[in-house]
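Late entry, written up from scratch paper. The run itself happened at the end of the previous shift, but nothing got recorded in the book at the time, so transcribing now.
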Amino acid sequence: MVFLSGTLGFKCPQALAFCSKIHMDFKPRTRCLHNPFSRSPPRELLPTEDGSSITLQEWQGWGTTSPLPTIVTRIADELKDLEKDSDEKMTFGGKGGKIKGDFKKQEDKKHRETYRGLGDSEQKLQFFSARQIACRLVGSRGYLCQKCWLPHEDCMCSKVTPCKLWHGIRFWLYMHPKDFLRQNNTGKLLWQLFGVEAATLCLFGIAEQEEIMWNAFKCAGKDKVWCLYPNKSGVVKSVQEAFDQGLSTDLGFAETTTNGHYILNFVLIDGTWSNSAAMVRRLKDQSEHPYKKAHKNELVSPKGVAQMDQAKLAWGEEDICFISLAAGASAMHKLRPQPSWDRTCTAAAAVGLLYELQLLPKFCSIGLDKQAEAIEDTLAVLLDALTARRLRMG
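Output as recorded:
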């Protein structure tokens, strides 16, 4: 759930002052704080009343507008078929709500065989992502609230006040499947607050969602798409450098556009530090596809495997533009330590972006600071809910 905005380049004291509610003094720790979710007791699958497969309505209820991926449905159905054919019940628990017990051994064996039989790295990546997502969907039925991704007894939805994001901005939450339905993920707050059209979920390795995202980028044009990520191997601009030049001073055109040509698209990389590198490689489409080794739980890049260049297909150019923020440690660092690079979670990165844009003359009259404050308030609600759960579970 960690967004990785950088501290490169432009430093903005005013923006840092704006972010006082989500930033905190950071003191190095010798160990991580206790994770309450690792002690979640095992629970049996809670099927729908008619025992049906995952439906489009159920899928979109988790925070997406995309079609239901066929491969996700197939894997979820295979899980249920395997349960019927075996004497073991599916149980879930622990960190990430993973499959537990003897059923896990059977499921692992079956899917490792399937994985090894796949022909290329793209198929393996899509299978890896779909399997992660299918297991989370099946295991979360009746347990997690579909809006806030917290257990029903900890639901925070009644404390969240939705608001509108300025129509000229659209967030894309490019999320790793291992962060999908994580209780302490903060990217989910953006569509819970602004709606799924203003903050759109795109899961890494899910072809249907990636196609929707890249079609939107192609329509918008390269000069209106930015990825917030401290890309060490390429040119990274600050918000001031990216928007003080090249963008029309007349932002009123967004009032009348209906085809998305003048929407500013911001991609937030929503994954752990190690997983984000593979996500950015795929986003940039440099040369190779990340894929999951059958015997290790990690993503690597195999030599000699060509990757489709989405950016080049969309714009005729290779690079997506990267920008970094002047943000510091977020409040979520107190509960779940963030990467040492900047200790910033996804929601806090969105806050930092809106505050820094608000300081520029082109955006100062829009009221982005009010929308940033709304994210801060919602992030505080999530932090309170997670802290209360940790205390209750000991």
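The two ends are 23 Å apart (CA to CA).
(Scratch paper discarded after transcription.)
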